[in-house]
Amino acid sequence: MNIPGNLRYTKEHEWIKAEGEIALIGVTEHAQSELGDIVFVEVETVGETLEAGETFGTIEAVKTVSDLYLPVSGEILEFNETLNGAPEQINKDPYGEGWIVKVKMSNPAEFESLLDAAEYGELIGA
Description:
Elements: E1 8-9, E2 14-19, E3 22-27, H1 29-35, E4 38-42, E5 49-50, E6 55-61, E7 65-69, E8 74-79, H2 82-85, H3 89-92, E9 101-105, H4 109-112, H5 117-124
Antiparallel strand pairs: 1-2, 2-3, 3-9, 4-6, 5-8, 6-7, 8-9
């Protein structure tokens, strides 16, 4: 199981990569493997400011539909439009081309309180 050390993680299986106050967010390799083939991603919160833990969208797989939770408070700046035509990018490259949203963090300190790679690995039994 790939758990990059430069990212932070949530117990709901989202990852976040911060570059200053801007962050990319997606779902972990573990999450995409549990979901199976991803067929649709919906994010209607671009331009909105949400609190950490709020739902920012949904991800639909052949088996189920799951909510996506924002790891940190902030404004949703951008949705990865590539996923409209190729949602399977999340299955193929969850930490790269499969990112879901770009966020401007309201409180970058929230990033530090998230799980690091070792803690996330322990959570999923990796």
